[in-house]
Amino acid sequence: MAHTQEDRWAMMLMGPALVLLTLPVLWQNETRFDYYRAAAATQAVDSLDDVAAGTLISLTGPMESGSAIPGEYVEAFPGFLTVNREAEIYSWYQPDFSRNTHYEMKWKSSVQNSADNAGVKQECKSKSFYRAEYQVGELPIQTSLIEFFDDYDTIAPKTLRLKPTGMQLHLKPGSEYFHLTKKASDGLGDERVRYTGIPVPRVATYFGKYESGHGVADQSHHQSGIVYQMIQDSGNLHCIVAGDRPAALAKIKSHLQQLKWIIRGLGTASIITGFVILFSSITGFMYHLPLIGPLAGWGSFLAAVMIGLPIAILNIAAAYLIAHPLLLAIIATGIVATIYLLRKRGKASQQALRRDLNQQYGSPLGTDELKELEFLELAQMAMSDAQLDDNETKILQKWAKKHRWDQAKYDAMIARARSEREVIDPGTADDEHLRNVVRLAMADGTLTGYEIRTIRSVSKRLGFDDATIRKMIDRVRRDIARNRAEAQSHPAQ
C-alpha cells in the first residue's frame, strides 16, 4: 500500500503531535495526586461511634463474600470486588504509520480504520463491573468513584454461566477466553472476551471520607480530563485494599511507584516514536534506494533516540522537582553553595597568581598591563622564526582589535615584542612563553575560550599540540594551588 502525498503530510504532522501530546502526560505523571501520602494521613479508626462527618478515615475490618456482581453476557461473578471485561477483535492493523509497511492481523481492542477492515464490526465491548455497595467491617461504602489497588486474577470461562445475551452472540468458552468465531477463513472479525477480577479479601482496609454513615469519595483533589484518565489519576481518595492498614499502605505505595515507571517508559517510547515518524516521513523517499534504505531507517531511529530521550528525561526531571519542592530547594541551595565556593576558590587562586606575577615583574600589575604582557608573550611566540606570516599577523591584529587598541599601540607592542625577543635565550623561550601566556591569561580569574583558541593558533607553529597546551594549563593550575596552600599555611605576620 503506497502512501499518497497527503499521507506523508499527515505523518509529518502526526510525529510532532504525538510528542506534544505525550509531554503533558509525562509532566502530570510526576505531579500526580499522591494516593499513598493521602492515605497515610487519614485518621485510623476502630469504631465509627465518635467519628465526625467529613473526617478522612482508614478502617480495617472483615469483608464477606456478599452478593455476586451481575454480568451482561454471563449471569454473575460471585466472590469478587470488581470485574473487568476485556474484549478484542482479530483484524488488520498497521503498526508503523511512518513507512510503506504492510498490515498485520492482530488481536486489538478496536478495529483500525482501513479498506482491509471494511465491513468488520465489533460486537463485544470492554466494560468494568462493580457491586451495588461495599462494606468493610461496620462501614458501608458507596460504589461511586471507588478504586482498587490489588491485582486482578483471570476468571476461567468454564466457571461462568452464559446469559441469553451471551448465547445470542454465540460465545464459546475456552481455557482463558470466551470466543466468538465468525465465517472468515482467515479469522478476520473473530472476537474474544476475557474476564479478570479482584477476589474479595478476608480482611481489607478502606481509605476515604466518612459522610452520612457511609464511606464516600474525598474529591478535594479531584482531577478530570483525558490526560488524568490516561495516567489513572482521578485525585479521589476512595479505595478498598486487601490487608490491614500497614499492608494496605505498602500496596498503595508499590502500585503508585510501578504505575509511574510504566508511564515514564511508555511516554519516553511515545516521544521517540513521534520523532521516528517525523524523521521517517522526511526521508521516506530514501527507503526505495538500495543499500541506502536500511541506513536511512537506522539514521531516523538514532536521531529520534538522541533527541527524544533527552527531551523526555528533562521533562520528567523538571516535573519531578516541581512536585518535590523540598528536594528542589536542596538542589538549588547546593548549586548556589557550589557556585559560591568555586567563586571564592577562584578569587583566592587569582589573588595568589597576581601576587606571583607582581613578584615576577617587580610591581603591582593592573588589568591593562596584564593584557599588554599577554600580547607580548603571544607575539614573541609567533616570532619564533623571527618572522610573522600573514596568518599570525591576522591573529595578533584581531587580538588587539578585541581589546580596542589602535594601530599606533599595536605597532608599538609589536616593536617591543621584537626587541625583547632578541635578548631571550632561544633554547628556553618557547616553553617559557607558553607558560607565561597561560599565567597571564588566567590572572583575571578566567581563561576564556577565545584566549585558548588564540594560544592554540599561535602555538601550533611551535609544535605545541592541544595535549601539550592542556598539560601546561594543568601545570599552571597546580602551581597556583600549591602557592595558595603555602600562603594559607604561612600567613603574613
From TrEMBL:
It is found in: Endomembrane system; Endoplasmic reticulum membrane. Keywords: Endoplasmic reticulum, Membrane, Transmembrane, Transmembrane helix. It holds the Pfam family TMEM43. Its main location: membrane. The keyword Endoplasmic reticulum applies. The keyword Transmembrane helix applies. GO terms for cellular component: endomembrane system. One of its GO terms (biological process) is nuclear membrane organization. Gene3D superfamilies: TerB-like. It is a multi-pass membrane protein. The chain crosses the membrane at residues 9-27, 261-279, 291-313, 319-342. PANTHER family: PTHR13416, TRANSMEMBRANE PROTEIN 43. This is Dna-J like membrane chaperone protein.
